[in-house]
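Sequence of Phospholipase/carboxylesterase (Haloactinomyces albus).
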Amino acid sequence: MSTTDLSLSHGFREGSADAPVLLLLHGTGGSPQDLVGLGEQLSPESTLLAPAGTVSENGAARWFRRRAEGVFDTDDVIARTHQLADFLGEAREHYGLGTRRLVAVGFSNGANIAAALTLLRPDALREAILFAAMLPVPEPPAHDLAETQVFLSNGERDPMAPLQPADELVTALEQRGARVRSHRHPGGHRITDDGLHEATQWFRNGLRTAE
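Predicted 3D structure, token representation.
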């Protein structure tokens, strides 16, 4: 995957113009390469756009600061969300993506910044596949999310993304009109085979709906 001098360091690989663009958002300590294989499984024909988180936590790349495990710096979440949304606008112009369908795919911290994008900047992101996500900001604004659809997969024994804040994210999305598919698995903080299968089916059903 190649990189260019936009506002965020990133990887980019062109795919079919007929397939959605996948925005790949890594977890804490990850890199733009982390979810490439996952993106290829979800949609082999898709263009892949994979930026790198700009926050360093003891040398580990993240998308926003946190005050403790599971306690986010809300002001930083908001600022970094707008930064990522602005980058997406730059990337659309630079790579000639126009108004092509964009679907975020995120894990953990990457899923949380994707969730923040759907809640705070629906002009930038309307579709997301979130693994191990939870509500990233308290009391998000009351944007109209009727055109937003989100898939979530969370573990019932995940100490890093417990079910209560995960359910709070579902509630926040649904209260604003988003269509949400919530999947649960019995494991912990990871992407499971059944979660990936369910995400793939959701993604492909969305493609048929868009046709």
